[in-house]
Please model this.
Amino acid sequence: MGTPDLSAPSRAQSAVGGKHTRSGVIHEHVRHTANFTVVGNHLAQHPHLSLLAIGLGLYIQSVRPGTPVDIKSLAARFKEGATRTSAALRELEEYGYLRRERERIPDGRIVTRTVSCNDPKAPRRAAADTGCPDRPPRPRSSRAPHATRKALPAVPQPHCKLPGLLQTAVDVLADLRRHDPRLVLSATETAHLAPGVAAWLERDVRTSAVRHALTTGLPDEPLRRPAALLAHRLTDRLPPPTPFRAPTTAPPPPVRHPLRNCDGCDRGFRAPEAETRCRDCREPATAHP
Model:
């Protein structure tokens, strides 16, 4: 009775398709009975979301209603910081896992409500059931679900797209996130906005003035499409061209007469050709008393 069964495997092996796997992950599942959250694989294995956005989406779906999930609270909770957290929230919002809705509360103030949806493709049910207000179902498509990005608004174009001018414009846009962590732009968004900044610089506007126009007076809530907001400001606040100033006509250079010798004292002097004597010889000698 004390003899072990030598035919039994030393550890359990996962079977996939009837065969034992020798590589990849092996799951050891324990059934949860309390303190757990059901999350769809469409989020956990999303093909387009970043790993940070997926993790943040899982965290938001797991917390209790009323838990603060603004950028400041999340940056204090996790070590990724405000810039990366803001970018991840925008990803979740872009693919429908997060919505921000402005609402007027009884005391008259307007606040922003963050709504987390665990299945963006499903029709919205009552707010008491899912936290998502009613909405018509999205049209189904045979293609894999993928959020369509709206095109950015057009921006002003400079008269001359000099490489140095465009590079300065790119540097201005890349530096905006240092002044507001919500203004993190992708390479595509930066390339779209750079001509608009170049149009400002072409009108003798300093880079500091462009930065001030783009970052001052932004709303307090998270920015849903920061690149679109910047495109609007570049167009709406574009200053007029600098007034044309005709070049100032310089006075003619003084006449420089040729050098000649005085017929009276043989001293060299400059004078028109008609003059043959220097000034001393032309002036009468002063009579002595």
Summary: DSSP finds ten helices and six strands in the chain.
